[in-house]
Specification:
Layout (H helix, E strand, L loop, with lengths): L4 E6 L5 H14 L4 E11 L2 E9 L4 E6 L7 E2 L2 E3 L1 H17 L4 E7 L9 H10 L4 E6 L3 H5 L5 E4 L8 H9 L2
Parallel strand pairs: 1-8, 1-9, 2-7, 7-8
Antiparallel strand pairs: 2-3, 3-4, 4-6, 5-6
Length: 173
């Protein structure tokens, strides 16, 4: 049986991460194992200054910050690719290895794609017979279309509150 493979896209700050966070909470409450990771903003004085990556139920680290001057950059952010990989890649492996798990990946975007190991891991994850929901940065969507087969859903202010419930019903046994 083929499992649902879904990519959520939207402009920045529309609520993709919030949808994934709420979906994870709903699945966990229904007893469904959740594996994967969440990317979240770091805000100081009302201004976004960086991003963290956190495995569901596991490690959390800073993966990008405006104050970092060495390493690759995406916009104003210096990106620590090894820190991202230390959290995200094992989380993705656990999704495949955990019986009955749903893989939640937030997000497939320019910072994450700086990791040479990340895209092949995404392709493998979507090829596995497990349910996957991933958020996809709008600029990364085109590159993914030819490599990953998934239903594309655009998160909007109109659907973002109901979407976690809809997806939870689809992914719960």
């Amino acid at each position: 049986m083929s499992r649902p493979h879904i990519m959520l896209t939207a402009p920045p700050r529309t609520g993709k991460t919030t949808v994934i966070r709420r979906l994870a909470e709903l699945l966990a409450a229904a007893g469904v194992p959740v594996c994967g990771f969440l990317s979240d903003e770091i805000r100081e004085h009302g201004r976004r200054v960086g991003f963290t990556v956190e495995e569901f139920g596991g490690q959390k680290t800073v993966m990008a910050h405006v104050s970092w001057v060495s390493g690759p950059r995406v916009g104003q952010y210096g990106v620590n690719v090894p820190a991202f990989e230390r959290v995200a890649l094992p989380a993705m492996e656990r999704a495949v290895a955990t019986k009955g798990a749903v893989a939640l990946i937030d997000e497939i975007g320019p910072m994450e794609l700086l990791s040479p190991a990340f895209m092949p891991r995404c392709v493998s994850l979507f090829a596995a017979d497990i349910p996957v929901v991933a958020t996809v940065h709008q600029r990364s969507r085109q590159a993914l279309k030819t490599r990953i087969e998934a239903e594309l859903i655009t998160v909007t202010p109109q659907n973002r509150d109901e979407l976690p419930h809809t997806l939870s019903r689809l992914l719960s046994p």
